[in-house]
Input
Amino acid sequence: MAIQSLECPHCGAPIPPSVAKDVVVCAYCCRTLVGVPGASWGMLAKSALLDEPAGNVDPRRVCVVLGRTYLLEGRLAAGESSDVFLASRAGRVTERVIIKVLRALADEDLHAREWRIVHRLHASAAQGAAFFTTLLPQPVVKGIVDTGDGIRRSAIVYRWRSGFQHTLEEVRRAHAGGVTPRAAVWMWRRLLDLLGWVHRSGFVHGAVLPHHLLIHPRDHGVVLCGWSCATELALAESAPARNPRYAEYYRGGAESPAMDIAMSARSVAHVLGGDPAGDALPGAVPAELARLVRAFADGSTTEEDAWALRKRVGEVASRVLGPPRYERFDMPGWR
Output
């Protein structure tokens, strides 16, 4: 019998295998779910008691990282150097995880950098650390992955973060004409919040690109992935080489808080329906907000303090859009 993975349709949280009835309440968002199947959980519960996956599982779904066995559920993304998979721990105590697997062992330095910096950020004592560390990737284990094909690959395992599943690239595809100005404002302000803390912790992200920005449509949250490009402020010259494919986002300047901020503006210009330079923004974008995005996107204005810009974005938004209010943001798969 095939194992069926069940998720809450509202928040994306997993429905636990202990469920054996067709009406349940999601433990995460408290929504009542009707018609939840229970028959398929028998095989899942049986395999969860094992330290190895059940014998009828396709071996291509199985990977082992430092002795921990995971079942791959699907590929989430393909980055410049890594493939990212959704997986579940196979064992008595299971959990959902993200597995980031390098395609070439020669790029191991990228994973080593990411692992080191994420841990350094988790140890940060900068203002707001108790909150902002919850927005970072949550490390589980790093090691060589064994997929049974004899090829050694480096892998990082992170805990699955419910709800943060859409990149700004996906948002732009879903909203081909651009998101509303109010949506762009909450995305930019949440991003600047996180960047300000990262900079005060002594690091720059170095690759604030649309495909490295994940949003939570319902809760209006933004998190960053792609930390293999991050570096300490004092060692910015040691940053990895930039991918020429995204030259328009990196245009001008070295790794610095100002560059992170400029790239955030270019990503916002992109999701608004314009180009990364902030040109040709849709007419629905109020002129004052468009000028602010363009000033930072084209490099004519530099700013080292992301929190100061966050405040400025809020002031402009209040003038041109009115008082802040929650506005529903739709993405495919959410209701």
